[in-house]
Design brief:
The complex is a heterodimer of chains A (56) and B (195). Chain A is an all-alpha fold and 56 residues long. Chain A has one domain. The longest helix of chain A has 23 residues. By secondary structure, chain B is mainly β. Chain B has one domain: Fumarylacetoacetase-like, C-terminal domain (Fumarylacetoacetate hydrolase, domain 2), CATH 3.90.850.10. Chain B is globular, with a radius of gyration of 15 Å. In chain B, the strands form three sheets. In chain B, strands 1, 2, 3, 6, 7, 9, 10 and 13 form an eight-stranded mixed beta sheet that branches. Chain B has a five-stranded mixed beta sheet with strand order 4-16-15-11-12, with no helix packed on it. Chain B contains three helices and 16 strands. Classes of the chains: A mainly alpha (56), B mainly beta (195). Chains A and B meet through helix 1 of A and strand 7 of B.
Chain lengths: 56, 195
């Protein structure tokens, strides 16, 4: 796993934490719930792809 | 969070009190996340008094997601002023005067919907009951959005990054045992500086 991949994983985890917090608080002042959920789905797919690279 | 982005000289009166020329654009510098401490109301923070005079710089802090503001807080960008002056006089970088444990103190963040007038509300810092700094964002040279744009021109912005938007006039020394009180709309946090 390259340092770049590790950096990307950390970035996604940070984003998911922020998105979970926004959803939890119902804070849709800057982004709609639909947009946040769409971003979260995309990030989860990206995270799966990165994790598959582990150990290969 | 990947980093803390700080603006310097974003308030003309602060540049004047520092007897420094106002640059055409605010200056930028970084603090690492290890400098960050969230203040708890009624809590205590221990600062490295042995390293020289520590100045408070009260600032509005933005939390970013997709380069947009998702939450705001007040922060103290603490500065080892003697060391910074020495380094500046020698023409050296002055990061070590800005980066030490607890040098980026922030109040708990408020969502925009819980503080809709944050862009215009007055913020202030009291030390032992005395008002030391008082301002509002419209007094800054760069607005919050312009500050984010400026930062984006120079740094790779990551989700969760924080932006310290610069300090107004009134910076000054802190002492062991001081009580600092940060106030801004729903933000109301007092902490004691441990001896």
């Amino acid at each position: 796993m390259s340092e770049r991949t590790l950096h990307d994983v950390k970035g996604i985890l940070r984003r998911l934490e922020i998105m979970a917090d926004l959803l939890h608080r119902g804070d849709f002042a800057a982004f709609s719930e639909e947009e946040i959920r769409r971003d979260a789905d995309a990030d989860l797919e990206h995270l799966k792809a990165l994790l598959k690279e582990l150990g290969q | 969070m990947d980093k803390i982005i700080c603006l310097g000289k974003n308030y003309a009166a602060h540049a004047q009190e520092m007897k420094e020329a106002l640059p055409p654009r605010p200056v930028l510098f970084l603090k690492p996340p290890s400098c960050l401490t969230e203040m708890k109301d009624g809590g205590t923070v221990r600062l490295p008094w042995e390293r020289g005079e520590i100045h408070h710089e009260l600032e509005v802090v933005l939390k970013l997601y997709k380069k947009n503001v998702i939450a705001v807080a007040l922060g103290l960008d603490l500065t080892l002023r003697d060391l910074q002056k020495t380094l500046k006089a020698q023409g050296h970088p002055w990061e070590i005067a800005k980066c030490f444990r607890h040098s980026a103190l922030v109040t708990p963040f408020k969502a925009q919907r819980d503080f809709p007038d944050w862009r215009t509300a007055e913020f202030r810092l009291e030390v032992n009951g005395e008002v030391r700094q008082r301002a509002s964002l419209p007094q800054a040279l760069y607005t919050a959005d312009q500050a984010i744009h400026l930062a984006d021109e120079h740094f790779p912005i990551c989700d969760g990054d924080l932006v310290f938007t610069g300090t107004p006039e009134g910076v000054g020394p802190l002492r062991p045992g001081d009580q600092v009180h940060l106030l801004w709309g729903p933000v109301d946090v007092k902490v004691r500086l441990a001896p």
